[in-house]
């Protein structure tokens, strides 16, 4: 008799089953959006990582092309050009000779031209020094004139003293 009273009524059994199912559904609903959002985020990350990878590969290709071109230019610059014959028409030989003499003259004068260019920033100081030197020279010239006048006066006095 006790067993019969301990049994749950069929409506309560159904209720507890429904409650368990509701709890399980709530857990599923809580857990399911998280993996979906994680999946979407990871998919987007892979998409953007893929785009970045494509951009970096394009940049890498471009830089490799630039490096290859730079190497080719260096090889061309290192290669001596003097050993190659340059075909020049006979009518221009005179001008080539004149050009070569001008080039030799330019190379000979290059050092002096470079020194002149290097001295350009010093020109204001040089001008100031020249102004100072000019002023000192003018002062010395005036003192020399005064001294010359004094010498002439002294000479006249000496002539007068010895002539008397």
Order of helices and strands: HHHHH
| Straight-line distance between termini | 181 Å
Number of extended strands: 0
Low-pLDDT stretches: none
Description:
The protein is mainly α and 164 residues long. Helix content is 86%, strand content 0%. The chain has helices at residues 2-6, 10-31, 33-78, 93-119, 123-163. The chain starts with a helix and ends with a helix. The mean pLDDT is 81.
Sum this structure up briefly.
It is built from five helices and no strands. It is elongated. The model has no long low-confidence stretch (mean pLDDT 81).
Q: How is the secondary structure organized here?
A:
Elements: H1 2-6, H2 10-31, H3 33-78, H4 93-119, H5 123-163
Keywords:
5 helices, single chain, 164 residues, mainly alpha, 86% helix
